[in-house]
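R.M. (postdoc): so does anyone remember the format we settled on? I'll just put the structure tokens first.
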């Protein structure tokens, strides 16, 4: 069987199993099994697969047909043009979270230009470390705290921080939300759980069966964890500093009154993703 034949066969099998973006998923597994890039695969579609290749591909595709995310199968996920290690201890980084990263980079660079000094930032609920690493690479004058309540998640984050050579600029901290932040931050970024209890069972099998529920479950309202962090925020954000949150589709307008109560006078902006959905909330604390 050639690469092209295997790809056609498993694209159809994945489609029939209800796996989204079946051709991309099959391509990821084939590249992983061969140790190839996509460019290498597309340049050699008629290469004959060995019996060893086929045996490995059978094992990989069996796992994918059980709806295990391909990122866990391959141990790799690309996020904001960065290659990251992931496994079931952390959520798989999502493309929509890149909207949050873009907003944080924009704020961070403008803050540095105004203040002419390094920016002190925190990534709360860091998981794989994806956000902290993207910020450190794109804001070279940033020093970051990456916080997670899960020691397992922090082990994964440490792998990624070290891989990207950022252990001098990113400090990993185990703690609940902002409790372990001991000084005021110029920028706090958080992608916290925002799926309500009632919505969890309706998520894709890849998510509800395989990804860590603690990183998804936002309580009955979906915003319980976000609100808990907001309640800690007044003494943790410097005047003129920003708090950037990823939020669910219908949560922005519900959260605005709470933010006004907790951080009066703040400038609040909702930022949409490419689908036109409110994806982030940017809160700039008054007094800067």
């Amino acid at each position: 069987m050639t690469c092209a034949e295997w790809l056609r066969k498993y694209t159809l099998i994945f489609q029939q199993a209800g796996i989204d973006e079946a051709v991309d998923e099959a391509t990821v597994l084939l590249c992983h099994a061969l140790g190839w890039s996509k460019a290498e695969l597309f340049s050699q579609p008629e290469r004959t697969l060995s019996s060893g290749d086929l045996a490995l591909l059978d094992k990989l595709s069996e796992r994918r047909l059980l709806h295990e995310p391909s990122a866990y199968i391959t141990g790799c996920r690309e996020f904001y043009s960065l290659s990251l290690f992931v496994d079931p201890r952390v959520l798989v980084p999502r493309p929509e979270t890149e909207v949050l990263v873009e907003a944080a980079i924009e704020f961070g660079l403008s803050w540095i230009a105004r203040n002419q000094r390094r920016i002190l930032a925190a990534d709360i609920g860091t998981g794989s470390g994806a956000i902290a690493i993207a910020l450190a690479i794109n804001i070279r004058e940033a020093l970051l705290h990456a916080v997670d309540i899960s020691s397992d998640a922090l082990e994964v984050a440490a792998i990624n921080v070290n891989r990207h050579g950022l252990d001098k600029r990113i400090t990993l901290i185990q703690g609940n939300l902002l409790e372990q932040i001991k000084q005021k931050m110029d920028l706090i970024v958080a992608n916290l759980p925002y799926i309500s209890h009632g919505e969890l069972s309706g998520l894709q099998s890849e998510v509800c069966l395989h990804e860590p529920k603690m990183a998804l479950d936002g309580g009955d309202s979906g915003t319980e964890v976000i609100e808990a962090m907001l309640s800690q925020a007044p003494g943790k954000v410097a005047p003129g500093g920003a708090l950037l949150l990823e939020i669910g589709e219908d949560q922005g307008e519900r959260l605005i009154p709470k933010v006004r109560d907790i951080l009066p006078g703040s400038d609040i902006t909702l930022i949409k993703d490419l689908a036109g959905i409110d994806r982030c909330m940017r809160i700039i604390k008054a007094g800067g």
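R.M.: ...and that's the designed sequence above, right after the tokens. Also worth knowing: The longest strand covers residues 237-246. The two ends are 64 Å apart (CA to CA).
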